[in-house]
Design a protein that fits this description.
The chain is mainly α. It has two domains: 48 residues, Arc Repressor Mutant, subunit A (Orthogonal Bundle); 128 residues, Tetracycline Repressor, domain 2, CATH 1.10.357. Helices cover 66% and strands 0% of the residues. It has nine helices and no strands. Helix 2 packs across helix 3. The longest helix has 27 residues.
Length: 201
């Protein structure tokens, strides 16, 4: 005999299918994808819960509110950025390559990048977020300091600000579509040409 009685279906509570932090991970992944597609304004805790297949209370349990969710996304984004900048610096020792990787990260991790620099979206005093920010910014600072002939702290700070502003500005212009004549498929080459105008001396 065939029919519904012969078909096994999963009737369990969807939240029971997540264990050991998998639900938190699933919600964050869904949030990052939603931001990448429609920006932070497109994110809804209720919609994320529905997408993942859990009750609308699940995101609140893990993050408290949308600011808590964005804080977790931003903190993870800064950790990922720090990892990438550290890896390229250790591999090349080239500050220019570090700047190129910064732009590359922004374009390939838009769902994180669009939240990381939005203090209006996150809990700015969150210890995890602050630690992740410091780790990422330290890599930028150290790269500038290593290439400076003048070692006074103020000179290094200003050079770092100029370098960061250029890389971040280029990334933002690319993400917002304000450079329509640029081939984003070759963004690394563009970033290298633009950042080469900086003089870390």
């Amino acid at each position: 005999m065939t029919g519904a009685s012969s078909i096994e279906t999963d009737q369990s509570d969807p939240s029971e299918r997540y264990h050991h932090g998998d639900l938190r991970r699933a919600l964050m992944d869904a949030a990052v994808a939603s931001v990448a597609e429609g920006g932070p304004g497109a994110v809804s805790l209720r919609a994320l819960a529905a997408e993942v297949g859990v009750s609308h209370a699940a995101p609140v349990h893990h993050f408290g509110d949308k600011a808590g969710l964005f804080t977790a996304v931003a903190a993870e984004g800064f950790e990922l950025l720090a990892d990438e900048l550290t890896a390229v610096w250790e591999e090349t020792g080239d500050f220019l390559a570090t700047g190129v990787r910064y732009v590359h990260f922004a374009l390939h991790h838009r769902g994180y990048f669009e939240v990381m620099f939005r203090p209006d979206l996150v809990n700015g005093d969150d210890p995890g977020l602050l630690a992740a920010q410091l780790r990422a910014f330290a890599r930028l600072h150290d790269g500038v300091a290593a290439g400076r002939l003048a070692k006074d702290p103020e000179s290094v700070r200003l050079a770092g600000l100029a370098s960061w502003s250029t890389a971040h500005g280029l990334a933002t212009l690319l993400l917002s579509g304000n450079l329509p004549d640029v081939d984003r498929e070759d963004s690394d080459a563009l970033a290298r040409h633009v950042l080469a105008h900086l003089r870390v001396v």
